[in-house]
Specification:
Belongs to the pseudouridine synthase TruB family. Type 1 subfamily. InterPro entries: PsdUridine_synth_cat_dom_sf, PsdUridine_synth_N, PUA-like_sf, PUA_sf, tRNA_psdUridine_synth_fam2_C, tRNA_psdUridine_synth_TruB, TruB_C. The chain is of the alpha+beta class. The protein has eight helices and 19 strands. Strands 1, 2, 3, 4, 7, 10, 11, 12, 13 and 14 form a ten-stranded mixed beta sheet that branches. Strands 15-17-18-19-16 form a five-stranded mixed beta sheet, sandwiched between helices. Strands 5-6 form a two-stranded antiparallel ribbon. A hairpin with a 5-residue loop joins β17 and β18. It is elongated. The mean pLDDT is about 90.
Length: about 290
């Protein structure tokens, strides 16, 4: 089996683990993983790695992501999305466009975000969602995230409810559910997410994504070298440096960091992924 990335358009109702299990059957290998979990309710781009490309997934998961979603103001839920139970209601009929804009502005840029109670964050060795299922409320610490774009693309009013269609770009680790929760809290109405579609993971967008059925009919595999070149800066080395890289050696930094850099040999073949720090390029993963 060749190594590479598979860009999946995840269907609603499937967990990311469900997609990986299906892709193992399609690709005929157990060495399959994904870069960045999507909740079952969400659809859209899920980057799946096959064979050696699984070494890229942890680095791709740290890239910026894009989402389109719908936030409902006027209701809060215990999961911060539509899959949970409504826990509080407060009319959003009097919420103005200016108030929404101010609330969104406060949630844009570098912020501190508390993850949802129903999340995979570990507290004292246990996933937060497992504690939530037991009726226990755990103290989750706020984490720094960056929301580089948070735009309202449509507004719909229905009595006490206010639905906002939004387009968001954010750093790894950002919970869109938490943005909906915090926007509703700041406006005094409560809020939760009713729809979510991931439109991009790093350079990989919906235009490249295919459904599982399409991949089952004809697996579309992005070669690992092309995947690295699309996602990270590219560094071409001569044969002497290529020999060092093949044996896990270090190179002098080329000023392409601070993130991962793809190193390619004189023949254009991918050799490794390195990280530049303190004037040295250290290997993160070697592919030969």
């Amino acid at each position: 089996m060749n190594s590479g990335l598979v860009i999946v358009d995840k269907p609603a109702g499937w967990t990311s683990h469900d997609v990986v299990a299906r892709m193992r059957r399609i690709a005929g290998t157990r060495r399959v993983g994904h870069a960045g979990t999507l909740d079952p309710m969400a659809t859209g781009v899920l980057v799946v790695g096959v064979e050696k490309a699984t070494r890229l997934l942890g680095h791709l998961a740290l890239t910026e992501k894009g989402y389109d979603g719908t936030i409902r103001l006027g209701q809060a839920t215990n999961t911060d999305d539509a899959e949970g139970e409504i826990t509080a209601t407060a009319s959003a009929a009097g919420v103005t466009d200016a108030a929404v804009a101010a609330g969104i502005a406060a949630l844009t840029g570098p912020i501190e975000q508390v993850p949802p109670q129903v999340s995979a964050i570990k507290v004292n060795g246990e996933r937060a969602y497992k504690s939530a299922r037991k009726g226990e409320e755990v103290a989750l610490k706020a984490r720094p995230v960056t929301v580089s774009r948070f735009e309202v693309t449509a507004v719909r009013r229905d009595g006490d409810l206010l639905d906002l269609d939004v387009s968001i770009a954010c750093s790894s680790g950002t919970y869109i559910r938490a943005l909906a929760r915090d926007l509703g809290a700041s406006l005094g109405t409560g809020g939760h997410l009713t729809a979510l579609r991931r439109t991009r993971v790093g350079p990989y967008g919906l235009a490249r994504a295919r459904t599982l059925e399409q991949h089952a009919a004809a697996l579309e595999l992005l070669p690992i070298g092309d995947a690295v070149a699309a996602a990270f800066p590219r560094r071409q080395v001569d044969e002497d440096d290529a020999r060092k890289v093949r044996h896990g050696g270090r190179l002098r930094a080329a000023g392409l960091g601070p993130g991962p850099v793809g190193v390619f040999g004189p023949d254009g073949a991918l050799l490794s992924l390195v990280e530049e720090r303190d004037g040295v390029a250290r290997p993160l993963a070697v592919f030969v």
